[in-house]
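In response to the reviewer comment on reproducibility (Comment 2.3), we provide here a single inverse folding case reported in full, input and output, so that an independent group could reproduce the run without further information from us. The structure tokens appear first.
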């Protein structure tokens, strides 16, 4: 039987056992500790990265349209806190010339930290690949900046599509007896593009970050799984922080930073869980007695 079909059939027939294996592998790899490191460096990276992207794109695209798109994108990463982050980025964009070349290079360095931490975490999760083959350090050094470039192109595409829809649409759209304002339609399109971009970005991370060649179907499984988990978690976090949370009472002026860190921590856990799903899926044929354990 084909290996891919065998693995798929075993997961479908015994989903609970597979979930248990994923959780056990995640704990064995100290996934919470790894996700904490990824979240910390992401918190350091997110503002410099989006600032650099917007400074570059603002030379060819309307800055206000870029900021609106960025706010929608950041809402996917830090639910409920995108307004504060976007305001900080907008303040920097207005004075970016004061930073100078050295300052921009420093921002570029900080923008790459999250990708470096994520790559190291992936090496731990995909240890069965690292033991066989290691990646050249120059490739690891280039990967973060390639992703920053791809994110720039993606943000440019979404901003352009949103601006085109806004310019071409009438004030109202009537369909099947229902009327929507174009503002709502544009927001829906931007959100849908954001979800699609989220799936593609996560899939690409799972394709590139682990050492060696990963099947696209495996990476897509991880990307879709992580996206679904994150969307559920994101809506829960929005509800929790707006209704039950006591973070503002406990941390006061640090509330925004704490909420963003908790949100990014949750996102990092989900990203690494998606990687663990792929790793365990790959190792169904490699783990001793895997066939026997899954057949019983």
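Designed residues, in position order:
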């Amino acid at each position: 039987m084909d290996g891919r079909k065998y693995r798929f059939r075993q997961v479908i027939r015994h989903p609970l056992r597979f979930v248990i294996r994923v959780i056990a592998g995640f704990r064995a790899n100290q996934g919470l500790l790894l996700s904490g490191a990824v979240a910390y460096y992401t918190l350091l990276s997110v503002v410099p990265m989006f600032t650099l992207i917007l400074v570059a794109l603002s030379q060819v695209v309307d800055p206000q349209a870029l900021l609106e798109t960025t706010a929608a994108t950041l809402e996917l990463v830090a639910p409920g806190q995108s307004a504060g982050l976007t305001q900080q980025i907008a303040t920097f964009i207005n004075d970016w010339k004061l930073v100078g070349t050295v300052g921009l290079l420093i921002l570029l360095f900080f923008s790459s930290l999250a990708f470096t931490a994520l790559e190291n975490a992936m090496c731990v999760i995909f240890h069965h690949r690292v033991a066989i083959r290691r990646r050249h350090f120059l490739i690891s050094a280039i990967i973060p900046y390639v992703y920053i470039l791809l994110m720039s192109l993606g943000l440019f595409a979404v901003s352009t599509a949103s601006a085109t829809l806004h310019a071409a649409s009438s004030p109202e759209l009537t369909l099947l007896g229902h009327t929507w304002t174009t503002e709502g339609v544009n927001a829906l399109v931007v959100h849908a593009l954001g979800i699609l971009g989220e799936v593609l970005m996560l899939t690409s991370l799972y394709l590139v970050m682990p050492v060696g060649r990963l099947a696209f179907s495996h990476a897509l499984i991880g990307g879709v799984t992580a996206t679904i988990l994150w969307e559920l978690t994101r809506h829960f976090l929005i509800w929790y922080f707006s209704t039950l949370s006591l973070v503002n009472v406990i941390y006061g002026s640090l509330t925004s930073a704490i909420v963003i860190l908790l949100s990014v921590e949750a996102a990092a856990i989900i990203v690494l869980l998606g990687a663990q799903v792929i790793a365990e899926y790959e190792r169904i044929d490699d783990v001793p007695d895997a066939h026997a354990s899954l057949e019983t």
